[in-house]
Design a protein that fits this description.
187 residues; alpha/beta; 8-stranded mixed sheet; globular
Length: 187
């Protein structure tokens, strides 16, 4: 019933689904690009629920106060301590290693604000745990969403990031807010 309701809401909002089944692996990381609005979370949640999947996302632990904390956990959020990027990465590696099934949706930009450099924590987590990475997207211009294709990582994180950004750039994605989404120089 919930799955049908999420599918109805997504369609009512004018969104089309590019992939109609969840990622087949029990564990994976799904990148969400471009991340320019809190609405990206809402649309992504509706999408993944509508196709029968359950993805988690990271949210700073300070947000997990009553009653918001209860709701965030119900929606699949994982509280993280953002003292340092290494601490967040270590927390996520621990969660992946202790879970039988875990799909993590995250934005490589790390924030909804414009950034000059994407974060590489997803690469570190994926390499440390052996989980695949999918190039998920939400295109506000065409209102198309999907978990994207699997990307095979190498041991060169920066080269992988440049290749991932080339793929996203070729997709000509539009964020909800223009000017908040950018690529590394030279991509």
């Amino acid at each position: 019933m919930w799955r049908k309701f999420c599918k109805f809401l997504l369609k009512s909002l004018g969104w089309k689904v590019a992939h109609d089944a969840p990622v087949p692996e029990d564990k994976c990381i799904i990148l969400g690009v471009p991340h320019t609005s809190i609405w990206d979370f809402v649309i992504s949640y509706l999408y993944y629920q509508s196709i029968g999947g359950e993805a988690k996302c990271m949210i700073k632990k300070e947000m997990f106060v009553w009653p918001l904390g209860w709701l965030l956990k119900k929606l699949g959020s994982v509280p993280i301590d953002r003292k340092s990027g290494a601490a967040v990465t270590k927390q996520m590696i621990g969660i992946f290693n202790s879970s039988e099934k875990f799909h993590l949706a995250l934005a490589p930009e790390g924030t909804r604000k414009p950034v000059k450099r994407w974060k590489l924590g997803f690469h570190t987590i994926a390499k440390a745990t052996g989980v695949p990475v999918y190039l998920g997207y939400f295109d506000w211009g065409r209102k198309i969403i999907g978990h994207g294709e699997r990307f095979e990582l190498t041991d060169d994180a920066m080269a992988d990031l440049r290749e991932i950004q080339k793929i996203y750039k070729a997709m000509n994605l539009k964020g909800r807010y223009d000017g908040r989404f950018d690529f590394l120089e030279g991509v």
